[in-house]
Amino acid sequence: MNKILIIIFAICLVNCSKKYGYIYDEKERKPLENVVVIDKENPSNKFVTTVDGKFSFSECDDLIIKRDGYITDTLQKYGCKPNGKCFDGHIFYMRKN
Fold first, then answer.
1. What is the pTM of this model?
2. What are the tens digits of pLDDT across the range 42-53?
3. For residue 8, how far is the Cα from the chain centroid?
4. What's the CA gap between 69 and 59, in Å, rounded?
5. Residue 41 near residue 61, CB atoms below 8 Å
6. What is the rounded distance in angstroms from the CA atom of residue 54 to the CA atom of residue 51?
7. Taking the mean position of all CA atoms in its chain, how far away is CA 44?
8. CA 79 to the chain's CA centroid
9. What is the pLDDT of residues 65-79, one digit of tens each?
10. Which residue, 2, 13, 15, 39, has most beta carbons within 10 Å?
């Protein structure tokens, strides 16, 4: 029983430590798939949004978001609030060129 609890805790710790957000089209308010999300300080750390516009990182700095047909933008400190607490599930919007 203890081993099962430890495994569940470890899985939660790994999954819960990831920060995630969504990228949507600004006008249509629909998710954007295939948006490239890149850590500005570590460009090898990148992610491509899923069909529901979701992306996630366990650690990152400012993020650059880009997709053909849209204006490339930077998400400052991954949407962190001024007090330093990041929020999960935030929707970021991209504007078409």
1. 0.73
2. 899 889 999 999
3. 24
4. 28
5. yes
6. 7
7. 15
8. 9
9. 999 999 999 887 655
10. 39
Q: Which of 83, 49, 82 is nearest to 63 (CA)?
A: 49
56: amino acid identity, one letter: S
Report whether 72 contacts 37 (CB < 8 A): no
2-94: CATH superfamily: Carboxypeptidase-like, regulatory domain (2.60.40.1120)
Cα separation of 91 and 39, whole Å?
17
The distance from CA 68 to its chain's CA centroid, rounded to whole angstroms, is 18
In this structure, what token pair is assigned to residue 31?
Answer: 């998710």
The residues, ordered by sequence, that sit 6+ positions from 70 with a Cβ below 8 Å of its Cβ are: 32, 35, 94, 95, 96, 97
DSSP state string for 6-52: HHHHHHHHHHHT-EEEEEEETTT--B-SS-EEEESS-TT-EEE--TT
